[in-house]
Amino acid sequence: MSFTGNYMCTSFKKELLEAKHNFTTTTGDVFKLALYTNSASFADNTTDYTVTNEVVGTGYTAGGAALTNVTPTFGGTTGFADFNDLVFSTVTVTARGCLIYNSTLGTETVCVLDFGSDKSAVAGDFTIQFPTADATNAIIRIA
Questions:
Q1: Is the pTM of the predicted complex or chain greater than 0.90?
Q2: Spatial distance between the Cα atoms of 27 and 90, rounded to a whole number of angstroms
Q3: Are strands 65-66 and 108-128 parallel, antiparallel or unpaired?
Q4: pLDDT digits (tens, 9 = 90+) for 28-85
Q5: Around 10, how many Cα atoms within 13 Å sit in the side-chain half-sphere?
Q6: Which of 17, 46, 93, 112 sits between 20 and 30 A of 8, alpha carbons compared?
Q7: Phi, psi of 15 (to 5 degrees)
């Protein structure tokens, strides 16, 4: 089965209510982004990072890379958190999507992102460009 869309993981929603995740820039948890092939099968019930169907390629390390948090804020009645863009430098990989997880807590997932099609880099940079950090576009929004 392949990627089937973007999801904020249900377990993450529960963990927010338990105050487990901290997205602040200077004192927050470490969140990582791992890349996956089209064979990966994730949905809203995904709870943990896994190496199953994670991309393998030159310059890419299993577990992905650490994200830089953008301190949460709000706009109108929507609270939101985001990350700075992430660049996997000088890699050769093909990925269909990614998983963001909280590595401070171990392997607890935040969200699943489907790129919509395979994306590749050949001995180059593979860039994850996050949307504008605002109430309408941020990667994590609670309305």
A1: yes
A2: 30
A3: unpaired
A4: 999 999 999 999 999 899 999 999 999 999 999 999 999 999 999 999 999 999 999 9
A5: 5
A6: 93
A7: -65, -30
